[in-house]
Amino acid sequence: MKRREKDLSRQKPLFKNRNTFTTRRENSATRKDGINIRRKSKMSYIPKTISEVVSEFLNRTTFLPAIQREYVWGTYAIEKLFDSIMGDFPISTFLFWKIKEENKSEWVAYEFIRDYDAEAPHNKEASVKGINQDIYFVLDGQQRLTSLFIGLKGSYRYFYYRWHKTRLYLNLLKEPIKDDNPEELTYQFKFRADAQPDPRDSSPQYWYLVGDILNFDDAEDAKRSIKQQLAGFSDHERDIANSHIGRLHSRISTARLLNYYEEKSQDYDKVVEAFIRANTGGVKLEYSDILLSTATAKWANLNAREEIHSFTDDLNAIGNGYSFGKDFVLKGCLYLTEGLPIQYKVKNFNRTNLEKIENAWPKIKDNLEEAIQLASRFGFSDKNIVSKIALLPIAYYLGKLGAKHFVTSSNKEDVRNQLIMQKWLALVLLKNAFGGSSDTTLTNLQQVINEQPDFKSFPYEAMNKRLNIEASFTDSEIENLLATNYSTKYSYLILALLYPERDWKDKNYHEDHVFPKSEFTNAKLKARGYDDAKIAEYQKWFNCILNLELLTDRENLEKSAEDFGDWFASRDANFKDRHAIPTLESYDFDSFLEFIEKRRTILARKLKAFSI
């Protein structure tokens, strides 16, 4: 799918000295790719009128490839595009890919959106079977062409306090006064529910449905069609209206404003290169968009685009929610399909490999889902899984294990194996084991798993050896871990290691300050009579692991911001050991620094004794 053209409603002026219409993306591409610009300067562009392209091309012979991302422009961006067209500003060029009739069945085509609905914004798959000629895919210009299609032939439905279904209108009575502020539109285009004047606006109004201009071959006929409706306005206002209609007709139906270049190659790799070159700036073009397009075109029985989008959504709905992307799923496809290279490259998504992935797709889904469900049940959240690919070796092992209902099993051996995986995942994330050459790391772990005589136990020792990490922490590592702050990406992982006997499954644990953080403000510490040095010491340690514990959601709700001494006095006999609370004569607030020093010794000892 294609890198999104920016939503013009959210960017700075599109005009450069008011004599060219271009997005910053295009400027960026021009600056970055001098070679491509020189090539383009020799290209032969084909000029067409807007009405010709909108009425005869879109969804008839011209479609979108799966490589394209979805439509993202808002109503103001469309209004601004039409204002630029009316103001004689160029709207840049387009890149079309010409596909020969005999090859059109090899590619999945999608329709341009005519009636945009924010509640269902997805492009529909197009049928090209009945088209007995060459067809075109738009590689560059989807956002602009869709905007023209919506503005001239469709509608735009969006939610703002309530749902609004609107169409594009032009106020024929607004004088085209140019403003020094490039954000101000010269003409008054507006998406509206109907043509009724706005009672809150006292200026002259006559709202003309922009798409009606397509009904007339001649501008004079268009003017005559509204002559009666304009009869009640002044001569000056009628002149403005007629001028607007004449200009609108000229810009839409007469002037050849749409210039496109045809990429005629039938070589997919060359077309992908052309697509990437056309989309080098702005929002980064993701490899997954290219690869997903390739898979969509080459899967025999399933629609890869729909399958992978839907499955990604399913993964992200597990537990409290995640943010896995298509890249993770596609990388998982390579990693979990036996005999495939795992490098994330277009060449590895060839027809043979994609056929293997399609055949393995049900198992791939099962293994990825099981790995994420297991991580979720142990409390790993989107925030603390700092390297998502660390889940892939677990998914690969689960595929080898082949045990049904392993994630929910209470069998003694299964539970032991689950806890090994939990500790291993926390360890490798804390040690940043996947921060270097991830493909090499993943390949090495895949080999380790395959070398096991059986798959009854997760081979963490051999995996750690291949990762060159120890299943323990040095003194300097422990010092850094204990200085980690509250609710950061590593804090939960560290706390999880400090509760080795805890029942994690399906429990919701909160990071909690032992001594309530609300008591550590400057004002409250000064009110206790502390000097600046003592205040600095209190504030240095209150927000780190040394003052943190994991409570169940119920315990955390009960504790709230209650004074720790009062809270501690009401806890059960095992509370102190469970949360590594040191023995003190007093647990009042003045004892905080003593608490920190003694708890440091206990927590350091626990981390030193860590083992999988």
Q: What characteristic shape results from the CA principal axes?
A: flat
Q: Overall mean pLDDT score?
A: 85
Q: What's the quaternary structure here?
A: single chain
Q: Tell me the Rg in angstroms.
A: 32 Å
> What does the largest sheet look like?
6 strands, mixed
Rounded to the nearest angstrom, the distance between the terminal CA atoms is: 43 Å
Number of DSSP strands? 13
- Given helix and strand content, the structural type is alpha+beta
Question: Low-confidence runs (pLDDT<50, min 5 residues)?
Answer: 1-42, 280-285
Total domains, how many?
A: 3
The residue fraction in helices comes out at 40-55%
> Strand order within the widest sheet?
1-11-3-6-2-4
Q: Report the portion of residues in β strands.
A: 5-15%
What is the number of helical segments per DSSP (H or I, 4+ residues)?
24
Characterise the protein shown here.
The protein has 612 residues and is α+β, with helices and mostly antiparallel strands. It folds into three domains: 8-263, no CATH class; 286-470, no CATH class; 476-608, no CATH class. The chain is 43% helix and 10% strand. It is built from 24 helices and 13 strands. The chain has helices at 24-32, 34-41, 50-57, 75-86, 142-153, 219-225, 235-254, 268-278, 287-298, 304-316, 326-336, 351-377, 391-401, 412-430, 438-450, 460-467, 475-482, 491-497, 522-527, 532-541, 553-559, 564-569, 575-578, 592-608; strands spanning 46-48, 62-65, 94-99, 109-110, 115-117, 135-140, 155-160, 162-171, 189-192, 207-209, 258-263, 509-513, 548-552. Helix 6 packs across helix 7 and helix 17 crosses helix 24. It is flat. The two termini are 43 Å apart.
